Amino acid sequence: MTPTRRQLAELTGDPAAAGGVRLVTLGDGAERGIRTLEFRTGSGLAFDVLVDRCMDIGAAEHAGRSFGWRSPTGFRHPGLHENADEDGLSWLRSFSGLMVTAGLDHTLFGGEVPADTYRYPPRTSVRHGLHGRAGSLPARLTGYGERWDGDRCVLWAEGEVRQAAIFAENLRLTRRIEADLGGDEIRLTDTVTNAGFEPTPHMFLYHINLGWPLLDEGARFEADIRETLWQTDSVAEQGADHLTLPGPVPGFVEQVYEHALNPDAQGLHRVAVVNDRLGMKVSVEWRAAQFPCFFEWLNLRSGNYAVGLEPSTHHVGGDAAAREDGSMIWLGPQESRTYQTTFRVETL
User: Fold this and answer.
1) Can you list the domains of the chain with their CATH numbers?
2) How does pLDDT run across 258-267, given as a tens digit for each residue?
3) 330 φ/ψ sector (left φ>0, alpha ψ -120 to 50, else beta)
4) For residue range 102-154, what is the model confidence (pLDDT) as tens digits?
5) In 10 A of CB 342, how many CB atoms?
6) Cα separation of 333 and 117, whole Å?
């Protein structure tokens, strides 16, 4: 039971004994220099917010058991990122953690699209890499700490990420992350604003990555799937089960699915990974109207073992297809869109 504010004051001279938020700077290897907010709720939930990587969520665990994926790249400093390298696939050299943001003007695979809306003759087109630029941009940290509302204590952090160029996009992401002292959920509220004055394309996706020990042989993927709209050729070639998940497989080729989900009565989508042996479930919940599309990324390769849950504003065709079929989101001058997502850890 979480103590009241008075009880906590009686029990300890420092509320950090129960939990809190601490700002540190990582100091070694490719991670050196990344400002990180360490959240501890006191229930066993602990996670890191990587301020200098779009305020994305890196390491995450509950009761000492990790559920945020840790890839071989580590949490690479954004100054090392080569956005246009390797034909746009260099994003894969900075890909790790519970959540990596894709956007703000492009998601999914790269390509070249017209730039005529920016009205700058030398810039006739824009070339995008995999999942856009946002995940490698540092945030301006505007605040963090603990806020009491009666006997409820909310741990919080807020920051701003700007993706901008002269004669190009001028997009601002305002991100707020909250967790309750004694609680088992992470609440994320993002607002993306066109801070400029030209119509600007907007695409947004969360690459939510779950790893071992939550992900293990026999773990289950749960979702109310109405229909699978698309899948990679590797699904037929390998046939790995995407509902009851296998263990690591040497040389596995990623299997990706676009599922159409049924929302609940409140208009929410909810998906989860469950490990019955571990007695642990991690779910993600979001508003269907904000993220109408969803991808399941199955990466069972030995050494890269992960499953990805990906709420998205757009279907798998990406930027060019969205422009062609009219589904591209065009943010007008000073126009905003807000996204609300909840991560929840349950003990079974």
Assistant:
1) 5-347 (2.70.98.10)
2) 999 999 999 9
3) beta
4) 999 999 998 899 999 999 999 999 999 999 999 999 999 999 999 999 999 99
5) 16
6) 12
